[in-house]
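TICKET: design request
STATUS: open
ATTACHED STRUCTURE:
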């Protein structure tokens, strides 16, 4: 099949760089967009999500947008408002105006970070996993902006017929680095599998799924992602012995260990942005 043209926003970031490496082998022709220049990609669009004209030109003729751009940790409300809330609205307006049929939105576990984490022993039975219907409980302004993005996606689906798959990503990095991440880790390769499924699945409207590998210590229900055609191949468990030896098991009395969102649920969580 012909490559599908996908606008990748946030292409200079950690996840964007991983996906720039992995998604072309699925047949995608990626257009890259980020406020930071990407020296090794001369054709990349260097623009801010505040720039509506640049966004409109960037999405024109694309088959889909994989929307990763934004502030990815807690910050001040004003910065989150500009990049994640107004920026995501600008993106959806460009998508609507140019008739792009699908968005895959990088939502986050922090949209419901205050959900109490399930306790082991692992693997948990399905009924103990956090269901996709769990109420949202943002742990930060950052998490709140992901709730906004999901609701914006629903509005644009209902009102304008733009389809979105919102992926509530756990932790997508080359390796898990904390004991919490053993439960929410998504390997980059599984990330590419899930984004490919979300970009191509035969679904309409707004679909919300959790995004992680098939970890032995999984806390949430991956059945929604699997229903898109996602078949995870990785499990964090090979990293468990070393991380637990170094850090100990999660302590139920430690507030940074009590919830899905981990240390985002403690204050103050202002990172240098
Ligand atoms: P990152 O911080 O490494 O990359 C974000 C990129 O967005 C950066 O390159 C930045 O320059 C760009 N950006 C920020 N504001 C912008 C603006 N106003 N206009 C244009 N570009 C802008 O973050 P990472 O880890 O790559 O995450 C990507 C997306 O996935 C983010 O939306 C994040 O919230 C989401 N996510 C990531 C997770 C992970 O484990 N990496 C977990 C959950 C969600
Ligand atoms: C996120 O939403 C962040 O963007 C990422 O940097 C990680 O902190 C991840 O969640 C996580 O919860 O580990």
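STATUS: resolved
RESOLUTION: sequence designed for all positions
ATTACHED SEQUENCE:
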């Amino acid at each position: 099949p012909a490559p599908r043209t996908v606008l990748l926003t946030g292409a200079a970031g950690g996840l964007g760089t991983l996906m720039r490496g992995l998604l072309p082998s699925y047949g995608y022709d990626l257009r890259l967009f980020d406020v930071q220049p990407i020296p090794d990609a001369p054709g990349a669009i260097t623009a801010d999500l505040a720039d509506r004209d640049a966004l409109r030109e960037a999405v024109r003729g694309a088959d889909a947008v994989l929307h990763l751009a934004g502030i990815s940790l807690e910050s001040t409300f004003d910065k989150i408002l500009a990049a994640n809330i107004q920026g995501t609205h600008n993106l959806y307006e460009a998508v609507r105006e140019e008739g792009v049929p699908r968005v895959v939105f990088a939502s986050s576990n922090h949209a419901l970070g205050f959900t109490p984490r399930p306790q082991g022993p692992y693997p948990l039975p399905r009924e103990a996993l956090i269901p996709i219907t769990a109420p949202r409980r943002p742990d930060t302004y950052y998490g709140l902006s992901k709730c906004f993005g999901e609701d914006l996606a629903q509005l644009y689906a209902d009102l304008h017929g733009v389809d979105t798959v919102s992926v509530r990503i756990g932790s997508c990095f080359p390796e898990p680095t904390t004991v919490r991440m053993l439960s929410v880790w998504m390997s980059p390769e599984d990330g590419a599998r899930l984004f490919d499924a979300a970009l191509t699945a035969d679904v309409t409207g707004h679909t919300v799924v959790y995004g992680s590998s098939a970890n032995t210590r999984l806390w949430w229900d991956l059945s929604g992602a699997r229903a898109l055609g996602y078949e995870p191949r990785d499990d964090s468990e090979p990293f468990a012995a070393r991380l637990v030896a170094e850090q100990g098991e999660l302590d139920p009395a430690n507030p940074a260990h009590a919830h899905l969102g981990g240390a985002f649920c403690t204050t103050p969580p202002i990172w240098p942005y």
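CLOSING REMARK: The pocket of NAI (ligand 1) is lined by residues 10, 12-16, 34-36, 48-49, 68-72, 83, 87, 106, 108, 169, 171-172 (CB under 6 Å). The first helix runs from residue 14 to 22.
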